[in-house]
Amino acid sequence: MHLTQSKDAVVAHDTAPFGDTMTSAPCWKRNAGAKCRRLTQVAFVALTLCVLFIQKPCLLPLPGYQQLMGEPRTWDAAAGGDASIESSVVPVTSAYKPLEVDILADFPKKIVQTTTTAGKRDFEQMWKSWRDLNPDYTYWIMKDDVLDDFVDQHFSVRPAIKRFWKQLNTPVLRTDFLRYLVMFARGGVYSDIDTSVVKPIHDWIPRRFLDDAEKPVNVVVGIERDQTKEGALRPIGFVQWTLMTKPGHELFEKAIYRVMSNIEFLAGVQRVPVDRVVIPKADAVEATGPGMFTDVVIEVLREQGIGVDWLLFSNLTEPILLGDILFLPINAFCGRHCRSDSPEYGDIYVQHHHQNGWFSSQPMEYSEQETT
Predict the structure, then answer these.
(1) Which residues of 219-280 form beta strands (DSSP E)?
(2) GO biological process annotations for this chain's record (predicted)?
(3) pLDDT at site 294
(4) Minimal CB count within 10 Å: which of 57, 70, 199, 214?
């Protein structure tokens, strides 16, 4: 190899056999084949990812850490926005019609559950625990033929809610939505059919909170998940398989409208009406389940002027009252799992047996029993 210098460039020559010289091809020509192969590989990977993305069910956009502390996710279908967090804007109050409801002095002595006909038989021992351990409470298992009448009766001044209810035909969405409707309209206690009660309801709220007339307890919330040390996106989760409230509380009103806006979001992204929305499990948790409920709880606290962060609920060993919401330690509604083997996290009030197969596409059927 030797170099010859010209005024414009340095040209490399290879000394060939028999003394001939050949000028080498420029680098871009020598590497063109390799570059083409690499570009082809990159293009193939990109195309594969695009196909997988398109085929993946459209999930609700997960908010950022700060947004999770009570701020709703939104999406503006009219503006033609996509489902990205940056462009999403959901009109959470588009169907909102204020309704003043007086908060009662006492919690209604009512227990509500829903189940299929088969479920009532399969979970008989569990639902009977609620009735037997709370004999002074009205116990009601709602049946299918009363649901429409219930919504019509209690939400006659809110046609948007009535229309939305009639459009829902996915069991998990109807079940979640129904519990918020019932709690807002009637109050009392709701619990999934695959739960059993361990401690009578009248013992759930410590006497020191009941005796303080200046700081009333209007809602009772249990903790389901405590992962503040694991870097989770939503480090604390609140239980929604067991709910306790006085009727007309803003928490459940907000939950109702948040469910509506979330499902309308999915309908907009999927470009289908509400009654044709396909709901993956992850979306059910975020749109109508504990993810949504946790966000709404934090939102209500902030609106009440309560400054909160996730660490406030971590390692809770005694009930705390924030605003008018009483938060119970993780053992209370999360018995037989979570930290129920650690007595420092409080007594067990409710056991959730996780046997109901909550994510089902089968039509709901209801049976009813109401006793006093």
Answers:
(1) 219-226, 236-238, 242-245
(2) protein N-linked glycosylation
(3) 95
(4) 214
Count CB neighbours of 208 within 10 A.
Answer: 9
Length, in residues, of the chain: 372
The pLDDT assigned to 361 comes to: 36
Domain regions of the chain by residue span: 110-352
First CA to last CA distance, the chain: 103
pLDDT computed for residue 170 by the predictor: 87
Q: Which of 227, 237, 244, 234 is nearest to 350 (CA)?
A: 244
Q: Are 367 and 350 in contact (CB under 8 A)?
A: no
Please name the residue that has the structure tokens 């200046």. Answer: 214
pLDDT of residue 340: 59
- CA–CA gap between residue 318 and residue 304 (Å, rounded): 22
How remote is the C-alpha of 268 from its chain's centroid? 18
Give the Å distances, CA to CA, from 117 to 56, 125, 144, 241: 34, 15, 10, 19
- Least confident stretch, 286-300, 317-331, 341-355: 341-355
- DSSP-assigned beta bridge partners for residue 223: 238
CA distance 128 to 78: 49
CA–CA separation, 287 and 290 (whole Å): 9
> If we measure between CA atoms, which residue out of 338, 334, 329, 339 comes closest to residue 351?
334
pLDDT per residue over 103-145, tens digit each?
678 999 999 998 766 667 888 899 999 999 999 999 999 877 7
- The rounded distance, in Å, linking the Cα atoms of 244 and 46 is 50
pTM comes to: 0.73
- Which two structure tokens, joined as six digits, stand for 242? 């067991």
CA distances from 331 to 26, 142, 310, 317 (A): 72, 28, 18, 9
Each residue of 13-69: pLDDT tens digit? Answer: 444 443 444 445 555 455 556 666 666 665 655 554 443 333 333 444 544 433 444
Strand, helix or coil at 168? Answer: coil
